[in-house]
Amino acid sequence: MATTTELESRIRELEERLRQMEEDRSRWRARALVDELFPQESRKHMREAWKHNLLAVRSVLDHWIEKQDNGGKTTTKRRESISVE
Predict the structure, then answer these.
(1) Are 66 and 74 in contact (CB under 8 A)?
(2) Are residues 44 and 82 in the same domain?
(3) Which of 11, 38, 51, 61 could form a disulfide linkage to 42, CB 3.0–4.6 angstroms apart?
């Protein structure tokens, strides 16, 4: 027969598993709602827009990093080719 400590430990483990399962279910529900509200093509455009936003932020960061590395002076701008799918 299991001790009280072992049973309490098992209950905590099961409660954690239940919490994780509920979180997973909530995520799947949210995903299903997005899939229902937005057609596939719209979701594709949204992903592309998000990607372009991230590229814009990266270019700002690159600018300020370069400026910091050069003691506050901007140098000639270098061109970088970034393939966008």
Answers:
(1) yes
(2) yes
(3) 38
Q: pLDDT tens digit string along 6-56?
A: 999 999 999 999 999 888 888 888 888 888 899 999 999 999 999 999 999
Q: Are 38 and 46 in contact (CB under 8 A)?
A: yes
Per-state percent for the chain, helix, strand, coil, to nearest 5: 75, 0, 25
Same structural domain, 20 and 51: no
Is residue 67 within 8 Å of residue 73, measured between CB atoms?
yes
- Please state the pTM of the whole predicted model: 0.47
Q: Is 72 found in the same domain as 57?
A: yes
Based on the fold, state whether residues 31 and 52 are members of the same structural domain.
no
Phi and psi of 37, rounded to 5°? -80, -35
* 53 CA to centre of own chain: 14
